[in-house]
Here is the input.
Amino acid sequence: MDPLHTLGKISSPDQALNLFASKLDRTQLAKIAKIKHPNVLIRIANAIVLCRPSKVFINTGSEEDKDAIRKISIEKGEERALAMDGHTIHFDLAREQGRIVDRTYYIAEPEDLVSSLANRMPPEQAVKEIESNMSGIMEDLTMIVGFYMRGPVGSPVSNPALELTSSAYISHSAELLYRNTFNDFDHEVEQKGYFFTNVHSEGLNRTEDLPHARVFMDRKYQTTYAWKCTYAGNTLLLKKGNHRFAVDKAVYRDRGRELSEHMFITGISGPDGRTTWCAGAAPSGCGKTTTAMAGNVFIGDDLAQMWIAQDGSIRTVNPENGIFGIVEGVNAEGDPLLMKVLRQPGYEVIWSNVLVDEKSKPHWIGNMEPAPEKGINFQGEWYQGKTNEKAEPIPISHPNSRYTLASKNLDNYSPEAANPKGVVTRIFTYSGRDEDTMPPVWVAKTPDAGVVIGACIVSATTATEVGVTGIKRAPWANAPFIPGALGDYMDAQFKFFNNPDISKPFKPVMAGLNYFLTHRARGGDSDKLLGEKRDVKVWLAWLERYAHNEVEYLPTPIGNLPAYNDLARLFKQIIDKDYPRSLYDMQFALYTVKIIQRIELQEKAYAKEKNIPEKLFEILTAQKTALLDLKEKAGNVIIPDYFENLH
Here is the structure.
């Protein structure tokens, strides 16, 4: 049961064209006439029948169309122009400042395997929900229809996708974040044999409607539905909604040959001018953008599509073409390239949920700039010292405040981002907001152990999900976006990284990365980082040299650790910073009890899942056994010189 067809009842291209003739004006009709693929026309027509917009705007991606969308957004009040030319501000509802995970569902038959971390709803009930909430939801509104590629045109892992929305803010965001490929859309759909469809409307955009807001994902018909919400993580369904479909494709259609990951892509410079490409996973709000920018050349900060090429290399492309980034903590010291785009004229930026002062200038937590006395932010009027109903201070901006910009504006943007052949990717990192357990960097001894690092990410939760707090497991930082069974996804990981088609020179380096370790975790009394944000440049540089066999390492039960002399040299060379041996010992000491507890947490959690590959438990058991033996020999805290002396 396809809800869109069931409710729209358009089943032929002729019916679709007749509908367009009655609903579109002459200009828009001339534009849609260039789209010939029958299935594309039928999907658009059914969405029009369901939502009943008063107008339809076909976005071809031309400058004229882009300008029109920006103007519509400002006229509707979805965005407001700021003092700097090209900058606008959008405010989501105060109670919708992140993904509404509690109101997000997969449409699934009872027999369908769906992630144990997700909500589900049978098709018959979903059709009723969609009909009662979306039928006529765009009356008195304009439906904007956009034609996009999630990735470079011509790439084997790029996905064509339709975005149909009544929100000009969402359409404006899509133009910055994705490639509008109106002229290539028919050809790409014909070549791929599929496309994704996304239908969204904010409706009346009222706080009282938020309990009824929903995000539905229909895996069978590769269609998403969202209503009565505006936060881009819930509504720009090209992003995480379609990422779920891409994960599905990698796991169930192309298992072992393709992956769709929640990863940044960055290039790290090595000796003699070489660039080694790295992809890294981290939960939203855990520094993925910062880590991506820490490389020397930038491709993406959030999503990655990868496959094994004919030459035996792992190739990666970014399905996006821009950044929807968390702005908290972004400042000139830690993120100078981002700050240039955010603070200097000449760039287009959509801000969301930051504070706007009386001079129409945006401000946010952690920008290391003088704060204004008052302004407007996500909850309305704000002034220094304002508190909420619990007498708690209201921050200057929401922790999940965002900026949206095109990647090409960054000085370190790589033209390789547009290459449909992707970049040869040698390094894969997995990280979370881990304050007290794992060292800054460690490398898996085998691809299987690397998959287990990804499976065992643990992170403090962030403001990206509404109503979620505490510490939680975050497998591959991708768990919220895995539609099927976790065991199937894990099996796909093992098969991909052990694929015999990967040539020896391209064997992946798989590593854990953690720059959130605090002084308190290592015997101090402060929650400050044990190090600083820019140190990540050194951890990545060390991994780059490791991939080329140019550094030494210390084998341990959890993996290979950097040797001190290499790090001290790289700290001085890369960021001109002294790196004392005492800091190295604190950062790379193995706290055996904590790591064993972390392993047992994973064993217990995965034991509750169905069809988890036995390989995971074998590797965890081997690591725990080795750590227990080490603890017996050397105590609870093992300083790196213990492993140095073994050599």
Q: What stands out?
A: The chain is about 30% helix and 20% strand. The longest helix spans residues 614-634. Confidence is low (pLDDT under 50) at residues 462-466.
